[in-house]
Amino acid sequence: MTSISAPTQFPPGFLWGGATAANQVEGGYDQGGKGLSIQDVMPQGIVGPRTDGPTPENLKLTGIDFYHRYAEDIALFAEMGFSVYRFSIAWSRIFPGGDDAEPNEEGLAFYDRVLDELERHGIEPLITLSHYETPLAIAEKYDGWVSRDVIALFERYVRVVFARYGHRVKYWLTFNEINSVIHAPFMSGGINTPKDELTPTDLYQAIHHELVASALATKIAHETDPQIKVGCMVLGMPIYPLSPDPNDLLASMTADHANLMFSDVHTRGEYPGYALRYFRENGIELQITEQDRELLAAHTVDFVSFSYYMSICETGDPARRLAGAGNIMGGVPNPHLPASEWGWQIDPVGLRVILNQFWDRWGKPLFIVENGLGARDELVESADAVDGFTVLDDYRIDYLRAHLQQVGEAIADGVQVLGYTSWGPIDLVSASTAQMSKRYGFIYVDRNDDGTGTLARYRKKSFHWYAQVIATNGATLRQN
């Protein structure tokens, strides 16, 4: 069948907005009764070693001070026309020690205020329950999700959160990029055992516990209000064969399975055959109870959400496996694609590919909840700017336009897409490198990698561009 390019057309009610994580924006790590999270001991992000406690060079301790400036920031989101804002609840704000008998009221009240502000501006909240923010005490006392006990601790947290906010929030996500635990067990799963000492059985047992906890959260949500929609969240990434060699295709399929397994379980309620084979052949014996099986089968997600930043290639030839610098998910660099300064290969067409792949595979509505370009921005004076300064980030506009055009193509293909929340609508501290200089936002935040800066906010050129995209429901994307 010949493909004919269709004009970018987004359906009525398409949700436009942006996404952040508490640990990258809030700050206030020691305020409002908050306990430490794993992020408070990761001053260099995923690329560096953890520390014994908070250190001054950890930018995440103060973030961009959303904890105090949330009203100002949400007003800027509203100025762009956001209809949805994805954010996370810091688990350690609600249960500072992870296994506390009672929740922290100050933490709950903070998110009440955030929701009040969103409601005032008519912005739909999309909340992530766990976004790389496991309470540090759970990592140290329980070895994170390796312990089955953490399911009950998560259930306690989830029940409190849904009792408090379930009547106000329609869209929820359980675990952020749950499949990233394979590559970053401490950040993604709160697993305290060093990665090189972690056995495959313990890793996949932790994954199983998270999957069960996700199903349990979905059950609690639907019991709270049947209108609540719960999604899983995975790191989405097309994996292409490096060549037409069938062995390269087989290698790409095998690598793809490692990621797809998570959403296969989330959407189908059971482990796929290829995963069971992998467990058998690698001596992985999981403790799976009958209650686990029943939960997984009965409480599948309502939609699938994902982040999209890059694609990779795979090959079956060990001699052709070259390290893809900066590609957090590994793989082999694609010789046909450019890359960002951090080595993430830029592939707008891959977003259409993965939207079609996910829709064909699961038949569930899809939500793109992260996509964006990390780049070094220069703040310049501008007489035309509302704030007196701006960033001329045409490179970001070009990147986002190209990706959103492919979303329109996927919608024309028949894919059901609920919405799009760009990653980092306001500059934030990078999860991978803990830098401020790796900026994603439509809003520039005056903060530097050394912690200096006023934290003042400035609208970038992309701020006004995105506002027009939203105001026209994507119609301006047809313009070059």
Report on the structure:
This protein has 480 residues and is an alpha/beta fold. It has one domain (15-478): Alpha-Beta Barrel (TIM Barrel). The chain is built from 14 helices and 14 strands. It has an 8-stranded parallel barrel, surrounded by 5 helices. Strands 6-8 form a two-stranded parallel ribbon. Belongs to the glycosyl hydrolase 1 family.
Uncertain runs are 1-6
Q: Mean pLDDT score, rounded?
A: 94
Characterize the main sheet: 8 strands, parallel, barrel
The percentage helix is 25-40%
* Secondary-structure content class: alpha/beta
Largest sheet, order of strands side by side?
A: 1-2-3-4-5-7-9-12
Globally, the shape reads globular
| Total number of beta strands | 14
What's the gyration radius in Å?
21 Å
Order of helices and strands: EHHEHHEHHEHHEEHHHEEHEEEHEEEH
What is the CATH superfamily? Glycosidases
Tell me the distance between the termini.
27 Å
Oligomer: single chain
The count of domains is 1
CATH topology: TIM Barrel
Please give the count of helices: 14
So, CATH architecture? Alpha-Beta Barrel
Please identify the top-level CATH class: Alpha Beta
Percent in strands: 5-15%
Protein name: Glycoside hydrolase family 1
InterPro entries: GH, GH_1_N_CS, Glyco_hydro_1, Glyco_hydro_1_AS
Keywords: Glycosidase, Hydrolase
GO molecular function, one term: beta-glucosidase activity
